[in-house]
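RECORD CONTENTS
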Amino acid sequence: MKFILHIIRFLVGVLFIFSGLIKANDPLGLSYKMQEFFEVWGIDWLNAFALFLSISIITFEIIAGVALLIGWQFKRFSWMLFGLIVFFTFLTGYAVVSGKVRECGCFGDCIKLTAEQSFLKDLILLVLIGILLYNRSKVSSILNPKWAITLLVATTILTIWIQVYVLNHLPLFDCLPFKVGVIIQDKMKIPADAIPDSTVITFEYKKDGKVLEFDAEHFPGDFNDSTYVFIKRYDKLIREGNAKPAIKDFVIITESGTDTTQDVLNSTRKIYILFTKSMDEHELDLELIQTISNIQKMANTQHNNFLVVSSDADNLKKMLSKKGLTLPVSKGDLVSIKTAARSNPTLYLLEQGKILSKWGRANLQQSLH
């Protein structure tokens, strides 16, 4: 039994470290997924704390995984992990039952799991961690307290450093649709071999105070009874397909309201696009202003185009003008920009829609060379 216990401890520990490292590659992605849950539950006031919570959860996952492997403070960490996996199981179970959140973000964008797959994974982990919790007194640390604490402190520092690094640069491993080499307009099309969603027309009626639901082939025998009161008709999802483009809602709208998306993507001239969700006065510092100005001058010198695209175009243009930089700012879709700009801002170099290169905020100067 002790051998099996160690195998379970090793598997759970490695899985938590692996899960944490994948998410540490893109903590913004997890924060956006958390915001989906917040908005569904009507607690979107927590959105402002989503990134902090994301970094904290990722860091804890990795620390807890390391602690399991070395057996340090096993009783404490087994309880904490059990509480965490109960919470995760609730989230993925809610996603399955409600259908309002299709992916949980458990392994980031690099390994996508459906809500059902994530729920099954969490159920298995719940059982395994439950076994560890039940046998918590049988595991002792393989390191003395001094070395164990040193290892965990080093793990914490390294994990937080990785996340801060990718937030200011870009993910170390790009698993997003907007990766270098991608032709954006191709990713905006539904794949030729895609399987569409399978739906059935469903009706809701009210009878004797009860809401009844049935499809066109299963009307009740007494349906002609006048006591049936129509509520609504809708398409019920029976089987989810994959007939969805990798890049959705990618638009570039000028200040005058003209949709220039296709013109930009099909332009034979290279074009630099600076994507940003929105920025406050603190984020839009003098160094960034100067860098943006230099990028614009470089693009003009090379006879290339330069665009700024933001989901908060009007406000951004006012702030740029206030800081002495007059630029046309086009409007883009917030969700699309969140996917494209994992660093705020992110600069792209395109040629006929193909992504030749991209730079995060900390690397913008590299685009000038």
